[in-house]
Design goal:
The protein has a two-stranded antiparallel ribbon with strand order 1-2. By secondary structure, it is mostly helical. The protein contains 16 helices and two strands. Helix 4 crosses helix 7 and helix 5 crosses helix 7.
Length: 408
């Protein structure tokens, strides 16, 4: 993505502090964003259940056309949020992935091995449980739903414990969630892409290649990169690959090092992460979390194996998958825990990994076209995320964080 040519960013102590400790700022925004996400979710549920029947769905189903003639794009409001605004969310995810691999926890192979193993276990086991329970039926299309972790909600729960949760534990959860994001994004791009247009996909790749070329020739105007980014988004949308992948790709192309002495990646993340956490993700929840429980929807969902498969994947699969991957890595000597994290605390962050909310809802709405299955999946996501949050909280309360690591 673009080098940032703005010059109004403070370069004094405050600006230096932001550049030196981007992880602390990221965690703070995620924790506060979790509150905004919760408020938006409650608002969506109230809107769907207290308003006129079908009013919520009717509003978000209204079509909006942008552009003119052959360049016009028509989508309903929900898809403009999911396919359009969520590109910024995924761009920020791409920035964070790039920073972690370039200068963060994932740069060191030994330090990265443990969270990678934990994340892989936290994707593989929920998927296996889900597929076992859906037994190859139509519901199996949503196999990736319980594989995702919602960073905002998970970090938000940790934030409730303040200083009782060590920095190392927060960083470990964040790193596992970031690797989880990498896997989830790959799954969306590979397994939830249908009817690919080779010509449009080639155009999208060519545009992204143009971003690299612009960087090499020294173009620093942010307006140019924004324009190129919009073109990449349109090409990806028309290709059949989910349009949000363009956001991730642009984030990964952002230079991790300084450009003309400016920390480009950190500044972009500093400016866009609050927008993503406090506006876009809550708006996504407002557009997608409004499940109308009237008319027997909850009763029907409880009778669907899909809902139970999602709950089992999120609660049991994440708990055993993340903790199992972590303990296996420790047993093999392939990684070490931070000095201020005990082995027994792994269970708590593994449980919090079962809060799948945002990305789980995102996958559910692209996995199913029928309302019955999508509603059942949403009920499972709500129940599984709530149970995982409660379990993680109970485990944290049972053994408060200590300043040094001890035995199990």
């Amino acid at each position: 993505m673009a080098p940032d040519d703005a010059s109004d960013e403070p370069d004094g102590p405050q600006g230096l502090r932001r550049a030196v400790d981007p992880i602390a700022e990221f965690l703070h925004d995620e924790a506060a964003g979790g509150i905004a996400l919760l408020v938006a979710t409650i608002a969506a549920l109230l809107w769907a259940n207290l308003g006129s029947p079908g009013g919520y769905a009717s509003f978000w189903g209204r079509e909006l056309t942008l552009g003119d003639g052959s360049l016009a794009i028509t989508e309903d409001l929900r898809h403009w949020v999911n396919d359009g605004l969520m590109v910024i969310f995924f761009f920020v995810v791409g920035l964070e992935i790039k920073r972690e691999f370039a200068v963060g926890q994932l740069r060191d192979r030994r330090a990265a091995t443990l969270p990678v193993m934990a994340a892989v276990g936290g994707v593989a086991l929920p998927t296996a449980i889900f597929l076992a329970l859906t037994a190859g039926g139509e519901e199996a299309t949503g196999w990736a739903i319980p594989a995702a972790t919602d960073i905002a909600f998970a970090v938000g729960v940790l934030a409730l414990f303040g200083s009782r949760v060590s920095p190392g534990l927060r960083l470990l959860l964040l790193t596992i969630a970031i690797v989880d994001d990498v896997i989830a994004i790959t799954i969306i791009a590979v397994f939830y892409t249908h009817h690919v247009s080779i010509a449009w996909l080639a155009a999208a790749i060519a545009v992204l290649g143009g971003v690299v070329l612009l960087r090499r020739v020294g173009v620093t105007s942010i307006a140019v990169y924004v324009l190129v980014g919009v073109v990449a988004w349109v090409a990806m949308l028309e290709s059949g690959v989910h349009a949000t992948i363009a956001g991730v790709a642009l984030g990964l192309l952002t230079p991790a090092g300084p450009v003309d002495g400016r920390p480009v990646l950190e500044r972009l993340e500093h400016r866009l992460h609050p927008l993503s956490a406090f506006v876009i993700v809550p708006l996504f929840a407002l557009a997608n979390a409004g499940l109308d429980f009237r008319g027997g929807v909850l009763r029907d969902a409880v009778q669907e194996r899909l809902a139970w498969a999602v709950v089992a994947g999120l609660v049991i699969g994440k708990l055993l998958g993340i903790s199992g991957g972590t303990f296996l890595g420790l047993r093999l000597g392939w990684g070490t825990l931070p000095d201020d994290v005990r082995r027994s605390q792994i269970w708590s962050i593994a449980a919090l990994g079962g809060i799948g909310f945002t990305v789980s809802l995102f996958i559910a709405q692209i996995a199913f076209t029928g309302a019955a299955l999508e509603n059942a999946a949403k009920v499972g996501i709500f129940a599984g995320s709530i149970l995982s949050a409660a379990l993680g909280t109970a485990l944290l309360l049972r053994r408060p964080a200590a300043s040094r690591r001890s035995g199990p």
